[in-house]
Design goal:
Rossmann fold, 18 helices, 671 residues, six-stranded parallel β-sheet, alpha/beta
Length: 671
């Protein structure tokens, strides 16, 4: 490594660095750029990453590096370049960005605790529950055109981004599989990102059966030793195909030729902690560095991606038909306002949905019911004084869970016994309102006592492998009806499912989020795509109190283009993404008046920095959930043509607004 005496090191802290350390003789021969080391920082011992070496240093009394974590673990130049871009674009330190790229188990963290970065990814998956078919299917005409395009770009080693827009069931996975096989022929490696591994077991099984031991699987719940061995299999070149959730984008593959981002519109590709990166955008940057191909696949692409494809930044490939020309399921929209008038109460199931469930069960077919809300009742309030029982630490109502007989906060997990009298007026007028998956399950048991019913949400499937157990039973026909949250909307392919019911299409539509219509359309289209995936055909029944909304009407006809045209014109009018980039600042603290004062001061500092730049400031305003885990929260949004215009002015403004006990987080391109 040459005769260097000093190393420039960055650490996983929100401080810029790098910091200079001397290199002890004992580790001199094993240390290089990319090494992961242990260093003293202040009065703590922390993990550091070597980003440069030098033989001169003007500072005296420099601390030495304590040790190298693992001399076989070295970050390759591509990953160092990628993490530097992440730190610049997503406004984090380089050390935080590198730390996100190195699995906690490989850092053998000094504290011995599991890395905080890993806890937000998916549950463990035991993907063995279904045999993936390893038959090499003959592509239809549309698939073949797509493959010709992708393979010729791979042959030419030219970096291109393809947006594969295919209706549900159109055979996107087969295009991925044959593109990966072509990359292998050329001696190139592939990375396949899926939103959440545990929710896409069938997809993973197909990859495993086609490529056997060439595949490595990375996800955060792998046991430590297994995760480390998979990492080393990849870096040694033994595994040339990596499949995993968002952090798999950092896998140390050799000769990267292809990155696939399946369901590219999914919000789970966005990291919640610093650095708050979006794995889809990081995938595009990594492919650019490696001159590799990217395939972004979705039946409902994000507006940003479709806009980029329409404007020639990406190459659009359309798969407009289902495999074997199977028809998309018929979609009926039921106006629940009329049902309510007829039933003189708020019904859970419309008459039409009940009749179709009855019919399909009697014919030994299967039903999926979807409701994006856990629990039994969404809130409890007093009919006399209007008091709603809320979490003591968060500004949200508590959800009643019937099986535990407890009120629970879905943000901080606080729980309590439900009171029998109102804590405010001491009267026994408490009523359980709203609707969750547990309530739907109990009503199903009442209406269809003969049916075998299972619930699939994060409450019922939090144990390792429990997703698979439910899905295996469903696949084998031991369950007639499955009721679940959005985890049942993705990637599942069950031939006997002929009916999908959406209990309430309005859940996401009423959220204070400019992407509410997009999320609603995506979810309805994805859920509807679970029906009619065999010759038995399929039907989808969507229950809604706002049936005329354009997102619901477009989902009825599986018409992405109509939805896109309407939504993009609204976004343009309001100057929202993809016509601008947004940066969200969240100011948090335990004292509300201090949070407000810092927010106000920060806005003034930003206005001073902006001056001639074309940047809008929105806020400050209380966050939609204005108190969480005992912390008051205020937001400021900034928007401009380029994210870099905003991040370039943030540093000075944030330095001026530093205040003890107040935390300010920066989220670039919030999801």
């Amino acid at each position: 490594m040459g005769n260097y005496k000093f190393a420039n090191i960055v650490i996983n802290r929100p401080i810029k660095g790098p910091f200079t350390y001397s290199i002890p003789e004992s580790i001199k021969d094993d240390l290089d750029v990319g090494s992961v080391v242990e260093v003293s920082f202040g009065n703590k011992i922390v993990i550091g990453y070597v980003i440069g070496l030098s033989d001169k240093c003007d500072i005296e009394n420099i601390k030495p590096i304590n040790s190298i974590i693992d001399k076989n673990l070295r970050l390759v130049p591509d990953i160092l370049e990628l993490t530097k871009w992440i730190s610049d674009y997503y406004y984090s330190s380089w050390g935080e960005a590198i730390s996100a790229a190195v699995p906690g188990v490989l850092k053998k963290s000094v504290s011995g605790k599991r890395s905080r970065k890993e806890k937000h990814e998916e549950d463990a998956a035991e993907f063995e529950f279904i045999d993936g078919s390893d038959t090499h299917l003959t592509p239809n005409e549309e698939q073949q055109d797509a493959l010709d395009f992708i393979m010729s770009s791979m042959d030419a080693k030219s970096h291109k981004v393809f947006l594969l827009h295919g209706v549900t069931g159109s055979g996107k996975t087969e295009v991925y599989l044959q593109s990966i096989a072509h990359a292998l022929k050329l001696g190139l490696s592939s990375i396949i990102l899926v939103p959440e591994i545990s929710l896409t077991p069938q997809t993973v099984a197909r990859f495993k059966s086609r490529f056997k031991d060439k595949i490595a699987i990375l996800h955060s719940r792998l046991l430590g030793s297994k995760r480390a061995s998979e990492w080393h299999r990849i870096s040694s070149g033994e595994a040339q195909i990596v499949i995993g959730a968002r952090s798999a984008i950092f896998a140390p593959v050799r000769n990267l030729g292809l990155i696939v981002v399946d369901e590219e519109h999914e919000t789970s590709y966005k990291q919640e902690d610093a650095p708050r990166y979006n794995a889809r955008d990081v995938a595009i940057k990594r492919a650019e560095i490696s001159k590799a191909i990217v395939i972004l696949g979705s039946a409902t692409p994000s507006l940003e991606s479709f806009y980029a494809a329409k404007n020639g930044k990406f190459i659009l490939i359309e798969l407009s038909e289902r495999i074997d020309s199977r028809l998309l399921p018929a979609v009926d929209i039921v106006d629940m306002r009329e049902e309510m008038t007829r039933a003189k109460k708020i019904p859970i199931f419309s008459q039409k949905l009940r009749e179709w469930i009855e019919k399909d069960i009697s014919e030994k077919k299967q039903v999926i019911l979807f409701l994006n809300r856990r629990g039994f009742s969404t809130f409890i309030n007093c009919r006399k004084c209007g008091y709603v029982i809320k979490c003591k630490r968060c500004s949200v109502s508590l959800t009643y869970h019937f099986d535990k007989k407890k009120l629970t906060c879905h943000h901080c997990n606080f729980n309590m016994e439900p009171p029998e009298i109102c804590p405010e007026c001491n009267e026994a007028y408490l009523k359980y309102w709203g609707l969750g998956t547990e309530k739907v399950e109990s009503e199903l048991n009442r209406f269809f006592p003969q049916a075998s019913i299972a619930r699939m949400d994060t409450d019922s499937t939090h144990k390792r492998g429990s997703h698979d157990k439910v899905l295996l039973k469903f696949k084998n026909g031991h369950i007639d009806i499955i009721i679940g949250t959005q985890m049942i909307a993705k990637g599942l392919d069950f031939p006997k499912v002929t009916l999908v019911g959406v209990i309430s299409a309005d859940t996401a539509l009423n959220l204070p989020d400019f992407r509410a219509a997009e999320r609603t359309f995506n979810l309805l289209t994805q859920v509807a795509g679970r029906a009619g995936r065999s010759d038995l055909g399929g039907r989808v029944i969507i229950q809604s109190y706002t049936p005329q909304h354009y997102s619901i009407q477009a989902a009825k006809t599986h018409d992405y283009n109509t939805f896109y045209d309407k939504e993009i014109s609204l976004r343009k009018e309001l100057f929202l993404p993809p016509f601008c980039h947004m940066v969200s600042l969240t100011i948090r603290g335990r004292k509300e008046e201090r949070v407000f004062k810092v927010s106000d001061d920060l806005k003034a500092s930003l206005e001073e920095e902006i001056k001639s730049k074309d940047i809008d400031i929105l806020g400050p305003a209380p966050a939609p959930i204005s108190k969480m885990k005992g912390m008051y929260r205020w937001n400021i949004f900034l928007r401009a043509k380029a994210a870099e215009d905003i991040t370039s002015i943030l540093k000075k403004a944030l330095n001026r607004s530093k205040s003890s006990g107040i935390i300010i987080t920066v989220d670039v391109d919030p999801s």
